[in-house]
Design goal:
By secondary structure, the chain is mainly alpha-helical. The chain contains 14 helices and 5 strands. It binds nicotinate mononucleotide and 5,6-dimethylbenzimidazole (DMD). The active site is at 322 (proton acceptor).
């Protein structure tokens, strides 16, 4: 099936930029607060970005941040490219649902809600709410076969769109897409190499903690998948079908739709970064609605940030996925909004401004 000729194929509308007037007004307001000019550094820029996304300065506080974990298995994991067996994905989905995972502890501290969805875990999903957007059991092994059919990639993109719409309609004011899936660092590396032009060897990291022998197998898998995908590097939907997965495609749809809905996003690590590259191809300009929360330990993540021209907020040596790095930066974003609403101005407080000011 040729995606260009498919009636149901997804097309995102043109993405508006955030409101530059509100951004400039927030920057101007920062200059009036009782602190030396620009003394809050990146926090000032983050507050101005939130103001631009919301179209108002000062921005409203972030009160309903939501983490959505997109879980899926990857056929390539059965070829020995991960430090963990594939059964772990399903077990981790249950752990996140029970509130026992790292993301739950971090999100509880940061005041974010967590929703976990099984897009393509290679197991029966007993919870119908978690299975609502299930595309298939495991995506194809991308070294030798396509990850998805054309219909599945469209369904996964549509799932991401619907999930973003549901969250925004329910009141989410900041979205955090998160990944979970043994083996997902391999398709992520392939997509990043395909879209940034990075050398294959430079995108292959240690993932879940792989040894040298496993790294060699992963390098061969990335090489084979890139060879299979070469003809479709410039076609994002075909690239997701050939070398992506249902969970990565759904995250790409979610990220693009967040921009359509003018909702700010904090980006997490490697897999979210790969999905973000695809989303920017599908909906050019979507990146203006995202901030990079952190820099992951995976080398390919730095290439994503470079390509999207995003500067990470924190760099804490986190390489977990699950949204962990993104949620870690969330309190800083909340602080950036409250600074603009709660700090007094020189004019209102009677605190003198700078000499000659
Ligand atoms: O996002 C990251 O920075 C990151 C870096 C390395 C590993 N991970 C997580 O570890 C899993 C992928 O690692 P692997 O070795 O199984 O491909 C998957 O569940 C990811 O969420 C995540
Ligand atoms: C234990 C474990 C937790 C994770 N969280 C995200 N990816 C993960 C991979 C593993 C292996």
């Amino acid at each position: 099936m040729d995606p260009e000729n498919t009636a149901e194929s997804i097309e995102f509308p043109a993405i508006d930029l955030p409101d530059e007037v509100a951004r400039a007004e927030a920057q101007r307001r920062h200059g009036t607060l009782i602190k030396p000019a620009r003394s809050l550094g990146r926090l000032e820029e983050l507050g101005a970005w939130l103001a631009a996304c919301q179209g108002q300065s000062p921005p409203r506080p972030v009160t309903h941040p939501r983490v959505v974990v997109f879980a899926g298995d990857h056929g390539i994991a059965t070829k020995g490219v991960s430090a963990y067996p594939t059964e772990v994905t399903a077990q981790l989905v249950t752990a996140v649902g029970n509130g026992d995972a790292a993301i739950n502890a971090l999100a509880a501290t940061a005041g974010a809600g967590v929703r976990v969805l099984d897009l393509a875990v290679d197991a029966e999903q007993p919870d119908p709410a978690v299975a609502e957007f299930k595309i298939r059991r495991g995506s194809g092994s991308i070294d030798t076969e396509d990850a998805l059919t054309e219909a599945e990639v469209q369904a996964a993109l549509r799932a991401g769109i619907t999930i973003a719409d549901t969250e925004v309609d329910a009141g989410a004011d900041l979205l955090i897409p998160a990944d979970l899936g043994i083996g997902n660092s391999t398709p992520s590396a392939v997509l990043i190499a395909a879209l940034t032009g990075a050398e294959p060897v430079a995108v292959i990291g240690r993932g879940s903690g792989i040894d040298d022998t496993t790294w060699m197998r992963k390098a061969a898998a990335v090489r084979d998948a890139l060879r299979r995908a070469r003809a479709v590097y410039a076609e994002p939907v075909a690239l997701l079908r050939t070398a992506g997965s249902a969970d990565l495609a759904a995250m790409a749809g979610f990220l693009a739709q967040a921009a359509v809905r003018r909702t700010p996003v904090l980006l997490d690590g490697l897999a979210v970064g790969a999905a973000a590259l695809l989303a920017e191809e599908l909906a050019p300009g979507a990146r203006s609605w995202w901030e990079a929360a952190h820099r992951s330990t995976e080398p390919a993540h730095a290439m994503v940030l470079d390509h999207l021209d995003l500067e990470p907020i924190v760099d804490l040596g986190i390489g977990l996925g699950e949204g962990a790095g993104a949620v870690t930066a969330l309190p800083l974003l909340a602080m950036s909004a409250r600074l603009l609403t709660e700090v007094a101005t020189h004019a209102d407080s009677g605190v003198a401004g700078p000499l000659g000011g």
